[in-house]
Amino acid sequence: MIDVSLNEPGATRSVPRSSKSEVQSAPSLTLAELQDLFQRAVMDGDGAILQSIPGNGRTTSDVLLGVYQYAYRGRLADILGIDHPLLKRHMGNDVFDEMAHAYITAYPSNTPNVRWFARHLPTFLKTTAPYDAHADLSELAELEQALANAFDAADEPVLSLVDLQAVPPDQWAALIFQRHASAARMTSRCNIYECWQALQDEEEPATINEPVVNQELIVWRKDEMSRVRIMTTEEAMAWDEVMRGATFGSLCEMLAVYDAPDTAPMRAAQFLQTWISAELLTTASNKARSS
Amino acid sequence: MTGEKPDYLGFGLGLRPQHYSDILEGSPNVDWFEAISENYMIPGGKPLKMLDQIRDRYPIVLHGVSLSIASTAPFDKDYLANLKSLAERTEPEFVSDHLCWTGVHGVNLHDLLPVPYTEEALEHVVSRVNHVQEYIGRPIALENVSSYVQFEQSQMPEWEFISEMTKRTGCWLVFDVNNVFVSAFNHGFDAQSYIDAIPADRVVQFHLAGHEDQMTHIIDTHDAMVCDEVWDLYRASVRRFGKVSTIIERDDNIPPLKEMVQELTIARDIANEIFSEENLAKGSQRARV
Ligand SMILES: [Fe+2]
Description:
The complex is a heterodimer of chains A (291) and B (289). Chain A is mainly alpha-helical and 291 residues long. Chain A is 47% helix and 11% strand. The model of chain A is unreliable at 1-23 (pLDDT under 50). In chain B, helix 1 (20-26) links the parallel strand 1 (11-14) and strand 2. Chain B has 289 residues and is α/β, with parallel strands linked by helices. Chains A and B meet through helix 1 and helix 2 of A and helix 2 and helix 4 of B.
């Protein structure tokens, strides 16, 4: 058996396998067996498949097989870089590539669409040394994915202020709201928004620090573009409660407990108006009627 | 499955997101576009809107990379369902993918992996093609891929495998001229014999692309202009297969649309010269039907 070094997939080897006639008779293998061996060669550098592959007269079979081995990791690392350009800028090309190769080994693709190959990256960065020591890495990955997910999230109608004006005032308290498919919340343990912004402007990433309170973000799509902004702690709490099914009435009560009771209904109405003009909501319905 | 042969579409390009606005604002001299199916197998948003708008103005072919027709792993049912609904939404001229496999054991290597040309593989591919065609309710087209290795177990040349596959399933063929060139060099076979052996009436599309010469082997990179040798082989292919819808593919180093349109002019000129030389012979007859 010829061993293949995964690190040097293109390296020329001294084993002469230049023509079919020099090769001992090939093992009789089923299609399934050949595919199993070939895949193991591409993913892990296993050399067993080489017994079934002749050289081409100019170069050896392991160089030819190396094209697939090299392409496999190279392609997937490229995809990670394309999907996470700011993370790559933040980490630097070399560190990013090393991380990408570790990710490819830890999470081989099991989706037919490369669009979702990177989906485990935030989890990988959060749980794998040495990346787990830096919250900004997994959070930056999470933010880039949230933006990408918002970009091609399902198309849904958006709730407008006109829709809401049609609701009689006595029914407002019972209203519940549904988020648009593109809307997603994220909580950062550091100043990820500033870091993301600086990287986008091709500046040195902002100094990563851990603020006293978590940074609350909302990501969504408007006019075909993904967006992100910071929410205040109160707005984030209000959004999260409404997404859990709280009615407008109970939102007002909650806000009254959280801060000045007098202005709570006004603050609730303001949040709602902000969300509606941003196109963050898709429907409003009456809780009593819909349940 | 048999079906009516797709219409001749002229000269097109692979649809790339970088070109969306130039296509929609500039009405470039491109007859049709080939869209990568997986790029539009997503829930919604701008890519699907762009596809719909371009579909309103140009014929579209859906070209996938993950059907994995030769894999011994079971079909990914969600993938087939998504492909079917995309086809129903887009109403493409036809749906195509590659004669290859992309992985087994639930893993996808996202590459077009080589098939051993054995009787067993042929029977396997034939039954899978039949299954897909029945499921999506239309014949598919399959493309020859570039390969870097051959298997000792192979019992027939690639062209024989492909000819048998189309004969037994009624599937159409996408004939990638560059891939024939690349594989012919890598495996030392004669590209003209390949062209001569493929049943002419099954070829519904040509692919043209650039590659990278490594001296001992050629890698299909799709990152450069079509080279002279591939243009020569294109000439030979047009002579043999007649009027066949043609595109140029570029997946890396993607230049501005107008440069791609310029390169497409080379294909137009070559083909038109041969058409007029041969007085349109068979090809025009088919186009008038
Ligand atoms: Fe192709």
